[in-house]
Batch of 2 targets.
Target 1
Amino acid sequence: MIFALVDCNNFYASCERVFNPGIVGRPVLVLSNNDGCVIARSQEAKDLGIKMGVPVFEVRAIIARHKIAVYSSNYALYGDMSNRVMKVLFRFTPSMEVYSIDEAFLDLSGFTTRDISQYARDIRRTVGRWTGIPVSIGIGPTKTLAKLAGNAAKKIPAMGGVAALFDPDHQRDALGATEVEDIWGIGRRHGRMLKAHGIHTALDLAGQPDPWVRSKMGVVGLRLVHELRGESCLDLETQPKDKKSCRVSRSFAKGVTRREDLQSAVASFAERASEKLREAGLVAGAVTVFLHTNGFRTDQPQYRNATTLVLDPATNHGSAVIGAAMDGIEKIYRTGFSYKKAGVMMEGLSRASGTQLSLLAPKTHQSTDAMKAFDAINRRFGSGTIRHGATMLGNNWRMAQQHRSPRYTTCWEELATVR
DNA sequence: TCTGGGGTCCTAGGACCC
DNA sequence: TCTGGGGTCCTAGGACCC
């Protein structure tokens, strides 16, 4: 097998730049929902030492001093740009796995290792020209080595955005130059554990005996080590699998105390969650509602709770899901707390077409036609045009989004204008 | 003052079955 | 003191990913 990993560079920041060339060459930050944390940085912002995930208030001074361009996250834009990139990639191979919003694995088996780098350069140039998004490409005999090559392609400018790892000597060098915590699949905990055992580089790790790896890091770790050695254990998953769970949750801009506000927030989350299920053709067998106070505010009384309601029969119907979520919030809401976050989780998902009929549950009168009309109206006139009443009980819970760019590619009212 | 959101898989232990 | 053997299913928690 020959795997290529295509990775969009600084994806969200790059998306903002496509429509705003004035920020090319300037440091750019994209913030999490609620404008709380930094979740994407242009290279210039990384060079200023701004770390992934830091709270914005900790870097305010740097932002002001360097006139950094700051954006709230705009998922409508990023999701659409991602689709465009993936569409271009699909022209280069019939066999690919969309791994995340900004990454895809391509199967390039059938190429010789000699001309494969040239092909990758073609891919890179085409994506750049057609979408405006810069990408790096790593190539190797396993997914993990392709990932590793991708890091090199990104870090070493001389590579021209493409790196391949087939030659055993090259592999050895690359593994030796990679810190364990930079390996795909090694997180903070295992990184610390390995260093405590004197294992510092990917090369060190690849040299550990199997039983030791198995006992310290389970079967997942064992697979990873074999992949580092060049033995492919992770297949390309070309067919996206059905989701097993689906969640919608938000932090609130200000603490929420009133029951109506919380009900309205949770009803909105449930409404959105049921929409997502319908888009995916799934139904849920249960919904979990949770809420909690702000854990950072140790000066305030803390409370967190969750409850799960069975949906019988399994459903993706808006009113049914919202109804259950309202029962849930009724169960766990307590007065006297300032809530920071709430959400719903849809669980026990299955295909809507093969729904199990219930023996005991009463007949429902949930109209799928009504939901089809609901979705059609929102598709045509914009999401939120028609809503369930329960979502409008209170309105004091919206998240902060002060710097959102226009939805240039998905909303007629927000098209880019040329003056 | 201000701290995101959405996923997956594995493991260990408990409850239960015959 | 000593207390079978072999399963399945569920759950909570851990670890990781982007």
Target 2
Amino acid sequence: MPTPSRTSLSEIVAAGLTIVESDGVEGLTMQKVSAAVGVQPPSLYKRVAGRGALLRLIAETVLEDLGESLGSAATGFDPKADLRALALAFRAFARSRPGAYRLLFAPLPEDWAPDQEMFVAASLPVLRTTEALVGPERALDAARLVTAWAHGFLTMELAGAFRMSGDLDEAFEFGVERLTVSLTAG
Amino acid sequence: MPTPSRTSLSEIVAAGLTIVESDGVEGLTMQKVSAAVGVQPPSLYKRVAGRGALLRLIAETVLEDLGESLGSAATGFDPKADLRALALAFRAFARSRPGAYRLLFAPLPEDWAPDQEMFVAASLPVLRTTEALVGPERALDAARLVTAWAHGFLTMELAGAFRMSGDLDEAFEFGVERLTVSLTAG
DNA sequence: ACCTGAACACCGTTCAAGT
DNA sequence: ACCTGAACACCGTTCAAGT
């Protein structure tokens, strides 16, 4: 006699996302997730291979959201304006969902990092913009320069790693400007 | 009747550093540490407040090492050459000790992040170099641009986040060059 | 087919008891 | 003064048993 389903994979992922945001990656436990969806911990394993697999699913969801944010930030008309818009969208995303953002680059247990292609897909708007700026030859190097800077900046901002003195907004704008210059002067 | 000490704080930290390097931050358990120094887990609490405190001590050790690496990379004579040397030293450090490097920016449990001033101290060579390049006014913004890029690049390189196509060494050199240009053209 | 309780191997941490 | 074993509250995960 079949037992009626009391939860679903998407509900589990959604609950996990909420927990990651409030308690961080370390705070995501199968027990919290199971409690959030109204089930006992062992039942989760009917839908998810384990904690690592769940973290990957959550991270992939976040990557999709990030990709959408970036995708709608770039217009495709003015590459210099797009570069700035992408940077601002990136920062806005990380600041509004710091837990989710941190998950993307957190050292996940046992090779549960999200699929490589999902990172590529999410950063496609950046690659298109740098291609418009520096041409196809250097587009990838330029995209790496920009994304590395943006990611590093946000990681350090979220970690409070440079709250020394000075305005962080200004520091970010400084970065955008100089990067834009360096990619258009070449 | 006093029991003879069977270990020491420095031995514990050293053992922890080794474990972080081999097993990652998540892999550092008090049990592994205690086994490595030849003691029972509860004994560690005589010298260290807990796992978080130990991680902080380890991270501070790593920060000191990084600061030394950076400090000996810059000569102080040629700021442009120093910037490149700093970037290469930074990358060499992260690649030779990825576990230790990752620890620096890992989300540590409960506010156990290393002291703010230790980050500042470690990155002082970068600040001195950018000051020589762009002047005292913009030195901090410029240092943040460089360190954010370098940190972001290494985080993504270590995470395998952009092993797509293309040469990573080349991408790194591209970044150094463009950043140097952007900081000397202003 | 899905859920559950019990169980196992692991955690961090506390504490009374030993020397 | 330092160490230990026992204990506690928590983990992730497996599995036999229920419906």
